[in-house]
Specification:
heterodimer, A: mainly alpha, 4 helices, B: 230 residues, mainly alpha, globular
Chain lengths: 102, 230
């Protein structure tokens, strides 16, 4: 099942990526579709931040991840490079756990 | 460092690789944690590595693995990933404007190289060297992402409990960095806020994967926000 799902994801993703270069050089999406595809990542990525910080399977919990992601938010606010943000998030979470919480 | 023989790029002395390599390093760091977490979520190291080869879109792969790790249906994970990747459609269209006429296999490869980083760097200067920046960055991302996934997938077992290293927080921290540019626009903030609200409310009452799919409604609602007011 994982393999089937990965193939679905891979084929669908390639269709999105390659549609322009393969079939539609010089064309554009209609403005509303363009705005929707632009805004979808904002909604989904923010939802992923929330669930992966707060969810443990299907329950909501507060643990060390909250501290790590808050620290990562400060790093984002300071415009730190991507890799640093990830390292801060993981590092502060690990540190919080080492200190005995979450 | 080394220098390139320059002819028509003489007026722009910045070598493409000097910009592509830092991108590759960041992608590599993220790919490493993807490999580790994909295996922790139940994929074999080989399958984790192959997944990076066939999908080559980091955010959607993390979303997929996030659903797997929560015990959700893999097809639900694929659906969340696909919604995320719809953005690559307009990306591919905007780069296609700059590509020279080429035979089908060449265009098929260019299609594969459409990722956030390659398009963003290529279009950073729309008047000069777009195609070269697109292809060099794209190939850099391919090598870094797949290679780092393999290292994480095959080497992750030596790390022990991933929570000790805080790797479960690497996902949301990375997503936070990715969503940041949208939070500077009003419609982006509305999409994000509604998405977070729906995901959090639905998490305890729906199967894993559904909250993320439903969060996509945030984008539909944000369409109603006027773009003129950032």
């Amino acid at each position: 099942m994982i393999v089937v799902a990965l193939i679905v994801l891979g084929v669908g993703t390639y269709a999105c990526k390659a549609f322009g270069p393969l079939l539609a050089a010089g064309r554009e999406l209609p403005p509303t579709a363009q705005r929707l595809t632009d805004l979808l990542p904002a909604a989904l990525l923010a939802a992923l931040v929330a669930t992966q910080t707060l969810a443990t399977e299907t329950s909501l919990t507060l643990d060390a991840r909250v501290v790590g992601v808050a620290a990562a938010a400060v790093a984002v606010w300071l415009r730190a490079p991507f890799a640093i943000v990830v390292l801060v998030g993981a590092g502060v979470t690990a540190l919080t756990r080492a200190l005995g919480w979450g | 460092m080394w220098s390139f023989p320059r002819t028509r790029e003489a007026s722009k002395p910045e070598p493409v690789l000097a910009r592509a390599i830092p991108v590759g390093v960041a992608v590599g760091a993220y790919g490493l944690s993807y490999g580790v977490l994909a295996v922790a979520a139940g994929m074999s190291p080989l399958l984790a590595t192959l997944s990076s080869l066939i999908v080559l879109a980091g955010g959607s792969q993390f979303a997929f693995v996030g659903v797997l790790a929560a015990g959700g249906n893999p097809l639900m994970g694929a659906a969340s990933g696909l919604l995320l990747n719809l953005r690559l459609l307009p990306f591919g269209l905007s780069i296609a404007r700059h590509l020279p006429p080429a035979p089908l296999p060449r265009r098929a490869v260019d299609g594969y190289l459409v990722v956030d980083e390659s398009v963003a760097l290529a279009l950073s200067d729309p008047d000069d060297g777009v195609v070269r920046r697109f292809r060099v960055t794209g190939v850099t991302v391919v090598i870094a992402w797949i290679g780092a996934t393999a290292i994480g997938a095959y080497g992750g077992q030596f790390l022990g409990d991933l929570r000790t290293w805080g790797l479960d927080a690497a996902f949301p921290a990375g997503f936070l960095a990715l969503v940041a540019p949208w939070l500077r626009t009003r419609s982006g903030r509305v999409a994000a806020a509604v998405g977070v609200f729906l995901a959090v409310v639905l998490t305890p009452i729906t199967p894993p994967g559904v909250p993320i799919l439903a969060a996509g409604l945030g984008a539909v609602i944000a369409l109603r926000v006027r773009t003129e007011n950032p």
